[in-house]
Structures are given as C-alpha cells and as structure tokens.
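Subject: for your reference before the review

Hello V.,

The reviewers asked for a structural picture of the protein, and I figured it would be easier to keep everything in one thread rather than splitting it across files. Below is the amino acid sequence we used in the manuscript, unchanged from the supplementary table.
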Amino acid sequence: MRGSVINFQRQSWTQILKDATQRFDDGAFDDPIDELARLKYGSSLVDYLENFDNMFSRVMVLKKLL
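And here is what came back from the structure prediction:
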C-alpha cells in the first residue's frame, strides 16, 4: 500500500484536483454544464439554490481542469 501513496508536495494544486477528480468522481462522464442549463425550479427555492450551487461548483472545477 505504501507504494501507492502519491507525494502531493511536488504537484501543483491543479494537478492534485485533476488526479482526485479522475480517481473519485463517479460522474466522470456527466456534463455539469448541460445539467446546469436544464436546472428547473421545483417546489422550494432553497432546494433550487442548493442544486444550483452544487452544479455551478462542478462547472467551475471542470473549467479549471480544461
């Protein structure tokens, strides 16, 4: 197990984010921009804003990685 530990001290923050996203993102084939564009208001403004914030965060991470 020790051989599989990554030395993060020598990597940029952008590379760490990219590696973590590839390893742990179960939605690797999702399109967060499309999901954000299709977001509709449901029954609660709080739910809508939470969904918007989550999707927008994913879009911003994707933008930084590209």
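For the response letter, the relevant points are probably these. Residues 2-65 form one domain. The first helix runs from residue 13 to 24.

Happy to draft the paragraph if you're swamped.

O.
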